[in-house]
Backbone:
């Protein structure tokens, strides 16, 4: 037990600090559990069992199915209808955001739903003269609330269902079983309704307008001091050199964004463009470096763009956009320099937003994390490639992107079948989901080559890595020990009070580590505690599941929060301000709902 507790402590530290990506941490734990088999009771077969676990395979299949739905453009279509309905009415905009996101997240994994809707909601706010800060956090929160509606709403529910089934098989007296498709929907509807009312009333008042309604990205990122136009005079040593030869030294931290020659603007790859007398170069750099090269190269400062419109006057195409880095992106763990982002996409990064902080210079060597936001300037064809690449969430909608809209009926029918077959007890959810994947390929909703790129492999490795940790908790008796410790609170708390303690503990734990890791750790403990006090184990498992699925208090508690962190311009404290009261409110609503629908005592 001491060894297992030590590994759990290590896991908490590594998950919270993100010294390694969370999937790498999970695999490290899996390896340690197997290496320390005499103490952890986890054999190599059990250690790698997470890869064949029904929960892991089901989540993998659901990620592919979600991508298939995305390819048809149906969610974007719903989003546009929502924007047309809402117009410039702020109340309608918020109601539409919450009202659409929640139900959709009940049948499609909520993480890709948010990734799809970030640009839709961003444009809705921009066109309706509303601050995106007022809509993007509710978008994330509504997706989490919607994920509680069905078994397949979130990977957390699927994993919790499988753990409950395993514990039920080992301890039949607990009466635990795999969740049905709609087994907790009545509680999910209650939670979604209360959460939506909160977001529409209290939440919207607590949300600050971090980004002005008349959004201008140059002003929002305060780039005026980092953009400058310089003219090349007749005596400059730069004349005759290419842009790369003259200013391509990485140590200088200068990006040449544009070359203007006799009124004609060149923004395409400029590296091989030869500099001539009287050329104007638009640079992104800091003042110190600017003064240094002006002195060295004899350049003359003529000012610089002060707004987004000044960057590309008279051009209709959006050339300045925010790009959010989702989980699974090849950029995660890389730097802009090591990833050759600029060369791949002919794109210049003007600013870098990470965990609420904006970096405007010397960001080439900063290691990129999930949720980081890049302010990118690129030609329209490069932006289209960024939009179509699942390594990025571009926070602006583009008409150039093509969807397989003719496949919408097939995708809708397949998702309906995936939901209905397990609900009617015809097929297990893992078989139904895999059959749905095959059906999407055969019907042309997805191409065979898209299957592997549809999977967020870091999520799959995270699940496979943490599942054996739950087994070690049970097999060494560590879960029973922790359960007995928490059960001791029953001497001064009623059973419903102990249930509330588990909800709060899970919510706090999920705020600093992965939601999937928290259910693996907490469900065995909750089941043991329920057994110790003679309570309904299913009620305790459900409380842990709902608490892990609704991590509102920090941007790192749930990855949908990270997706809106940058585009919303939020600070870390904003999530605490809006999320903490909601989490507390739902702790009471969920515990009372569980007590009403299922009872706390056996």
Residues:
């Amino acid at each position: 037990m001491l060894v297992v507790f030590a590994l759990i402590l290590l896991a908490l530290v590594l998950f919270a600090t993100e010294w390694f990506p969370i999937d790498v941490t999970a695999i490290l734990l899996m390896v340690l559990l197997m290496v320390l088999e005499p103490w952890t009771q986890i054999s190599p077969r059990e250690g790698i069992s997470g890869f064949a676990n029904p929960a892991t395979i089901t989540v993998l299949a659901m990620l592919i199915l979600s991508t298939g739905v995305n390819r048809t453009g149906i969610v974007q279509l719903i989003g546009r209808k929502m924007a047309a309905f809402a117009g410039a009415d702020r109340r309608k905009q918020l109601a539409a955001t919450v009202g659409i996101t929640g139900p959709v997240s009940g049948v499609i994994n909520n993480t890709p739903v948010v990734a799809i809707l970030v640009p839709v909601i961003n444009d809705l706010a921009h066109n309706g003269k509303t601050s995106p800060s007022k809509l993007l956090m509710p978008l994330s929160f509504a997706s989490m609330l919607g994920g509680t509606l069905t078994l397949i709403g979130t990977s957390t529910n699927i994993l919790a269902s499988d753990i409950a089934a395993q514990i039920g098989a080992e301890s039949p007296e607990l009466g635990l079983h795999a969740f049905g498709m709609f087994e907790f929907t009545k509680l999910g509807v209650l939670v979604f309704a209360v959460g939506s009312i909160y977001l529409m009333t209290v939440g919207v008042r607590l949300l600050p307008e971090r980004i002005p309604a008349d959004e201008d990205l140059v002003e929002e990122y305060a780039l005026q001091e980092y953009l400058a136009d310089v003219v090349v005079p007749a005596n400059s040593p730069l004349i005759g050199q290419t842009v790369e030869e003259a200013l391509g030294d990485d140590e200088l931290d200068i990006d040449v964004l544009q070359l203007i020659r006799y009124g004609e603007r060149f923004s395409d790859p400029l590296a091989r463009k030869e500099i001539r007398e009287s050329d104007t170069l638009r640079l992104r750099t800091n003042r110190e470096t600017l003064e240094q090269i002006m002195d060295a190269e004899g350049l003359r400062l003529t000012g610089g763009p002060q707004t987004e419109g000044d960057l590309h006057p008279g051009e209709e195409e959006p050339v300045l956009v925010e790009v959010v880095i989702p989980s699974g992106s090849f950029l995660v763990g890389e730097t802009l320099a090591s990833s050759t982002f600029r060369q791949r996409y002919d794109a210049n990064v003007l600013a870098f937003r990470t965990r609420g902080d904006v970096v405007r210079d010397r960001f080439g060597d900063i290691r990129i994390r999930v949720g980081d936001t890049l302010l990118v300037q690129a030609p329209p064809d490069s932006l289209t490639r960024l939009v179509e690449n699942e390594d990025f969430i571009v926070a602006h909608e583009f008409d150039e992107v093509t969807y397989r809209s003719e496949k919408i009926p097939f995708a809708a029918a397949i998702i309906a079948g995936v939901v209905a077959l397990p609900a009617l007890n015809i097929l297990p959810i893992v078989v139904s989901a895999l059959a749905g994947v095959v059906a999407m390929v055969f019907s042309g909703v997805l191409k065979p080559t898209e299957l592997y790129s549809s999977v967020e492999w870091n999520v799959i490795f995270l699940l496979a890595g943490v599942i054996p940790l739950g087994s070690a908790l049970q097999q060494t008796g560590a879960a029973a020990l922790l359960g007995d410790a928490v059960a001791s609170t029953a001497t001064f708390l009623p059973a419903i009070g102990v249930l509330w303690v588990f909800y709060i503990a899970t919510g706090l734990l999920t705020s600093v580590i992965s939601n999937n890791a928290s259910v693996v750790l907490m469900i065995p403990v909750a089941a043991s505690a329920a057994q110790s006090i003679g309570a309904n184990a299913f009620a305790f498992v459900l409380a842990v599941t709902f608490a892990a699925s609704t991590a509102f208090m920090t941007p790192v508690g749930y990855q949908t929060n990270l997706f809106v962190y940058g585009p919303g311009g939020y600070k870390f404290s904003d999530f605490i301000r809006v999320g903490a009261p909601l989490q507390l409110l739902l702790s009471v609503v969920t515990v009372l709902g569980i007590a009403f629908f299922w009872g706390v005592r056996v």
